[in-house]
Specification:
Chain A is an alpha+beta fold and 443 residues long. Chain A has nine helices and 17 strands. The longest helix of chain A is centred in the first third of the chain and has 21 residues. Chain B is of the alpha+beta class and 479 residues long. Helices cover 22% and strands 39% of the residues of chain B. Chain B is built from eleven helices and 24 strands. The chains are: A alpha+beta (443), B alpha+beta (479). At the A-B interface, strand 2, strand 3, helix 2, strand 6 and strand 13 of A face strand 2, strand 3, helix 3, helix 4 and strand 5 of B.
Chain lengths: 443, 479
């Protein structure tokens, strides 16, 4: 991809879209365009299984006629299609209602500085090279132990995308980013017990990926340790959420303080600003400008500048997570979160993984959650789980076919510790999280 | 007009692609010794309208089109796609794809129309079944009528979604098959508040039909009434019980049990690879003899129905479990060929940008002989689960969950108090062996299901009569 030329070309297309919207009578408009290319290769049982060449493009436009709004999108970027797409959006705006809160962001909130966040690192791996990496990864898993009995394979993914957005306030910017990953999923078997687990690594720069052999070994270890799991009797006990699933607790929290759920009154944290949600040692913040990180961006989905900021300090909720529209509905200003939070981080505590197990002492270590049982309106929480029973800080045996339940408000208040065993792979960075007590349902 | 010509007109004519071009692309794909190859063209128009806070807040229109080319050799698949339906682009894609096989040869393909197959839904564009003014008037009416139902209603959100999709699939034997698929859905979500306690209720429905489905029989207003009823029930709900107990599942949407507990585990790909808890178990008992479960893509107008699947195979009614015995798996072409069985019309893909896989259509259990009232009466202490949110399964361990959104205690043979929603967890290969009563009241769901697998979403249906399961773990907080 000829980077600057490509951005220049797409910027022109976005400007054409905005101009066309104006020609068709829109008083304001916002448009985005993206193009992505990628390769996905998987190997299973030592041989290549699929080779997929990806090539995606799409544009979307939102037009405003005063306070009325309409949107349209298409994967066809031909000039005729652009005109039709704008017409479709304008036509819809004839039927939507006047909404006093609708409209583009305040101009002064739009990003004006575009630091190089180092998001573009093309890998350049060939199809054959990717096949070799996938095979190496899967071999490491399959040869790790005699009880690794089968495989769902290993997959190498590499993608590069250009994203351009603009609005009729004069904002027009684009950037290129890459994303590469390697994953492996294998089965372990002992007698009648069959278990599957996986591991993955993902980064903007392929040099930051874990080694194929490391990923394979971890996938194998994770599948093996689940063999011969049993249920627990119904009880209450402390629960330690391992780092790789603890992010889901924070995702529910962010959902509850997101503008959309707040103004719809479908959140269990209404009117919670400046109140104590977590114990005083909890600090949760957003770092949108982290160099080379997966969640980094200089502006949000509306062009509003993103900022590093505290969401929770001393356990107190300091800020909601708002887009322009939801902010206006609440009488506030956008926090640059159209499209979500970026590199959400919970400050790690002093204990590592072993230390967290010791702190748990006797209770449940949860390493997998199943289902969607979180009620955003009430905070009621009930999900399927699997993990390990722990006594005196030592893992005793694997556990499966149980549920864990509680209410998120209580779970947040009753966090005892956050580990420093941080999982850096995703958009949320957290260590393991220990909750004082939850209800376990089992046999 | 004939279906194939309709699809040609929708997808190929605007792109200037002729049958001769498809023959060229297929010949290119077959210039390597592949076992199978296909070209999939798709064009889809969809729209959405949302009413919220008493106003028509949002509307959107979306066009998605493109083509995917695939070559298969043994267990190996090469795949490429593009949203540009242009001959040079698709020839280049074919070159990339056939690289899955190394040696080359000459190939010539002539297109022939596939044999006729029955159609299970109308081809007319549902987006045009109402004009835009009628659509927003419908939303307004549902909103205002729903708000009138109870003074505790705080918010009503009504959404209307419609899609019209044309697909055309050419196979390596030169056969050309097509489908034109309508899909509509409406949803009403209600938030109620009483004494500072808030709860929500949600109801929706739809199918492969047009918007007339919602205006006929005032169905749209019924969704609003049902959403309010559920929300008000939840205002009264107490903590759900925790532990293993007898569970009675209501008819219809609770059939999500079948989808999660056994459906996914019976998809051909997992069984060909031996990664499912059901692998190698055809002919064995996996359910009580009261249970017969089918996957049926041929139900007229249903959300999960297909006239042909995304590989051109006509939809079928496939018996999965008959009187408790596992009969067979759901197959796409690749897995059917590798397992030496026939495809069952379950080869589905989210779009041209994804590879097809074995997927469910409408999965349901046939009715039994028990009166639903008699089933409740037989339970001394247990849970009656009437409505569900979503579910998930680990096909290897067989463990599955599904989350009740409306549930009641059964005490001494009577439904008594409502309890809060809770996740239910069980083991797929043995949950149906614990089915001790099956009702006469088979119902299919109202048409809102979407199934996710490997990141691909497809519309599906579920259904069942009232079922009694002697022992399932209920994930409440009340010990």
């Amino acid at each position: 991809m000829q980077n600057q030329e490509e951005i220049y070309r797409l910027k022109n297309t976005v400007q054409d879209l905005l101009d066309e919207a104006k020609r068709q009578g829109a008083s304001a408009a916002e448009a985005g365009l993206s193009q992505e290319n990628g390769l996905s290769v998987s190997a299973r049982l030592g041989d290549v299984e699929t080779i997929e060449h990806h090539c995606d493009q799409g544009l979307g436009i939102t037009v405003y006629f005063g306070q009325r709004k309409g949107s349209a999108s298409t994967t066809d970027l031909s000039p005729d299609s652009i005109k039709e797409t704008v017409s479709a959006a304008c036509s819809i705006a004839r039927y939507t209602s006047e909404d006093e809160y609708a409209g583009l962001p305040e101009k002064e909130l739009l990003a004006t500085e575009f630091p190089d966040l180092d998001l573009n690192h093309p890998w350049g791996v060939s199809v054959d090279g990717a096949i070799a990496l996938a095979i190496e990864c899967e071999n490491a898993a399959r040869t790790y132990h005699a009880e690794i009995s089968n495989s769902e394979g290993a997959t190498v993914n590499t993608h590069q995308g250009v994203h351009v957005m603009g609005n009729s306030l004069g904002f027009l910017h684009g950037y290129i980013s890459t994303r590469h990953s390697l994953s492996c999923s294998v089965l372990a078997q002992r007698g009648d017990s069959m278990q599957r687990d996986y591991w993955y690594t993902v980064a903007r720069n392929s040099a930051m990926l874990e080694s194929p052999a490391g990923v394979g070994k971890k996938a194998a270890e994770r599948a093996l340790r689940r063999l011969e799991g049993r249920s627990l009797s119904t009880r209450q006990c402390p629960v330690l959420f391992s780092a790789e699933i603890a992010a889901s607790l924070l995702a529910s929290f962010i959902g509850a303080i997101s503008g959309g759920n707040l103004y719809r009154k479908s959140s269990f944290l209404l009117n919670a600003l400046d109140s104590q949600i977590f114990p005083a040692f909890i600090h949760i913040y957003e770092q949108p400008h982290l160099i080379g990180a997966l969640g980094s961006a200089a502006y949000d989905g509306e062009g509003v500048a993103t900022k590093s900021r505290d969401i929770v300090s001393d356990g107190i909720l300091r800020s909601y997570v708002l887009s322009t529209y939801s902010a206006r509905k609440l009488g506030l200003h956008s926090t640059g979160n159209a499209g979500g939070v970026r590199n959400l981080t919970i400050a790690p505590g002093a204990l590592d993984y072993q230390g967290m197990l010791k702190q748990l002492d006797t209770g449940l270590l949860v390493t997998e959650l199943m289902g969607q049982g979180v009620n955003m309106v009430t905070g009621d929480y009930s999900r399927g789980a699997a993990g390990f029973w722990v006594e005196n800080g030592e893992i005793q045996y694997p556990v499966e076919e149980i549920t864990i339940a509680g209410n998120l408000k209580d779970m947040y208040k009753n966090i005892i510790a956050v580990g420093n065993d941080v999982d850096y792979r995703g958009n949320t960075r957290t260590g393991s999280i220990l909750v004082e007590r939850m209800s376990i349902a089992g046999e | 007009m004939e279906l194939i010509n309709l699809a040609r007109q929708a997808i190929l004519t605007p792109a200037g692609i002729q049958d001769g071009d498809i023959e060229k692309i297929m010949s290119r794909l077959l210039s390597s010794p592949v076992d199978a190859a296909d070209i999939y063209f798709q064009s889809s128009h969809s729209e959405s309208w949302v009413m919220e806070g008493g106003i028509i807040k949002e509307g959107g229109h979306n066009i998605e089109q493109g083509a995917g080319v695939r070559a298969v050799s043994g267990e190996k698949t090469g795949f490429a796609y593009s949203d540009r339906i242009e001959l040079p682009v698709l020839l280049e894609a074919s070159n990339n794809v056939k690289a899955i096989v190394r040696q080359g040869q000459e190939a010539k393909v002539g297109l022939v129309k596939a044999a006729n197959w029955p159609l299970y839904y109308p081809v007319a564009n549902p987006l045009k079944s109402l004009d835009d003014q009628q659509k927003v008037d419908l939303l307004r009416r549902v909103d205002s009528e729903t708000r009138k139902l109870d003074s505790r209603i705080e918010e009503v959100i009504v959404s209307l979604i419609g899609a019209h999709e044309s697909i055309l699939v050419a196979n390596q034997d030169g056969s050309l098959a097509a489908d034109v698929r309508p899909l509509v859905r409406m949803n009403v979500t209600v938030i109620v508040e009483e004494n500072g306690r808030r709860e929500q209720g949600s109801m929706g429905g739809g199918g492969r039909c047009d918007y007339g489905y919602f205006t006929g029989h005032d169905r749209a207003l019924e969704f609003g009434k049902e959403a309010v009823r559920q929300a008000l029930v939840n205002l009264e709900a107490e903590a759900a019980p925790a532990g293993n107990m007898t569970v009675v599942l209501g008819p219809g949407w609770p059939g999500i049990l079948l989808h999660e507990a056994i459906g996914h585990g019976l998809e051909g790909d997992f069984n060909r690879k031996g990664t499912s808890a059901f692998s190698g178990r055809v002919g064995e008992r996996v359910a009580s003899d009261l249970c017969t479960v089918v996957d049926d893509g041929t139900l007229p107008g249903r959300r999960g129905s297909l006239s042909i699947d995304d590989e051109g195979t006509p939809a079928e009614k496939t018996v999965l479990i008959e009187n408790g015995i596992l009969k067979g798996y759901m197959q796409d072409k690749l897995n059917a060929r590798l397992m030496g069985v026939k495809p069952t019309g379950n080869g589905r893909r989210e779009s041209y940008a994804n590879l097809p896989m074995p997927r469910m259509t409408n999965t349901y259990m046939l009715p039994g002989s028990h009166n639903p009232g008699e089933i409740i009466k037989s339970v001394k202490k247990g849970l009656y689960a009437k409505n569900f949110a979503g579910g998930q399964v680990d096909i290897t361990s067989g463990k599955f969950v599904f989350s009740a959104s409306e549930a009641y205690l059964i005490e001494n043979g009577k439904i008594t108090r409502p309890v809060k929603g809770a996740t239910l967890i069980g083991n797929g290969p043995d949950v149906l062996t614990k089915v001790s009563m099956v009702g006469t009241d088979l119902e299919l769901d109202s048409g809102v299901g979407t199934c996710g697998k490997d990141g691909q979403s497809v519309p599906v249906g579920v259904g069942q009569p009232t079922l009694k399961i002697d022992g399932l773990t209920v994930g409440g907080t009340s010990v």
